[in-house]
């Protein structure tokens, strides 16, 4: 088939492009930077066009002849940095998505695979992991990104009732994976660990999934899911301490040992945001990111496993591949090497290079 992928240079997007191409599909990717596309997608044989989800009309003609749209683009990582984000969340995650749906429907696209978020899923009344039919938890209404997905999902349901386009939703957990060039908060966590910049072990955890497994679920949904289906693709619950332990085991670098009460960590995040506003630099942790870990998002992916045949690779495998990718990329290697020397670690390469 001919597939159109939005957010094609993002963590999920570039892994999806690779998965589609490995299965012989033609791909047109929507990217915001051609230079970045050449870096991340230049070896895939995919085509791409430059565009922005805030102006769908400017690239809508590229949808002509496409059999499916895979919509991975979102205003996401920007939200986990200081500042106000209401306009961006609304423009990209809601209005932009609806405009893309309208354009795809008008141009004869048969299937639309939309990426929402497992953050819109709460726990069941008995405390067990939530599923596709579980309402959002209270924290989803205080997190701007999750709220934009709740509102976007509602808008998609209204669209589906009026149009014939086959729409399927994928709700991933916290994604990790190679190719996280932006980086997302997950990738930034790995880079901060490699750079020796994590002073504490945060409280909490979340459902964690490899972006490559989400990509596989998206293609499987396109091939076999009925219109209107929703699939949580959450992986498994992982505590923050376990994540850092896996990074320590993979890299050979010492991880943080200190645990602090939540109030102190919240204050640290608040001060980090102030410093980020003053310097314009990315911050180590924000209050929004901290609250996601503390919410302990835990979801069931049983429907995707049974209906789509999805299996989740061990997080240790994902961590190995993430670390290897960052260390192999010249754009990250210098900063990692310098920071590694500063920590007095055994080697700047570590066990993952062997």
Tell me briefly what this model is:
The protein contains 12 helices and 10 strands. By secondary structure, the protein is α/β, with parallel strands linked by helices. It has a domain at 2-182 and 206-235: Rossmann fold.
Characterise this structure.
The chain is α/β, with parallel strands linked by helices and 354 residues long. The chain has a domain at 2-182 and 206-235: Rossmann fold. The chain is 44% helix and 14% strand. The chain contains twelve helices and ten strands. The strands form two sheets. Strands 3-2-1-4-5-6-9 form a seven-stranded parallel sheet, with helices on both faces. Helix 1 (11-22) crosses helix 6. The relative contact order is 0.13. Mean pLDDT is 89; it is low at 339-354.
Break the fold down into its secondary structure elements and pairings:
Blueprint: E1 2-6, H1 11-22, E2 26-31, H2 34-41, E3 47-50, E4 68-71, H3 86-106, E5 111-115, H4 144-162, E6 166-172, E7 174-176, H5 185-194, E8 205-210, H6 211-224, E9 230-233, E10 236-239, H7 240-251, H8 262-279, H9 287-295, H10 302-307, H11 315-328, H12 330-343
Overview features:
3-stranded mixed sheet, alpha/beta, Rossmann fold, single chain, 7-stranded parallel sheet, 354 residues, 12 helices
The helicity comes to 40-55%
Provide the CATH architecture of the domain at 2-182 and 206-235: 3-Layer(aba) Sandwich
Task: Please tell me how large the radius of gyration is.
Answer: 20 Å
Give, in order, the helices and strands. Answer: EHEHEEHEHEEHEHEEHHHHHH
Proportion of beta-strand residues? 5-15%
Counting DSSP E segments of at least 2 residues, the number of strands comes to 10
Task: Output the CATH class name of the domain at 2-182 and 206-235.
Answer: Alpha Beta
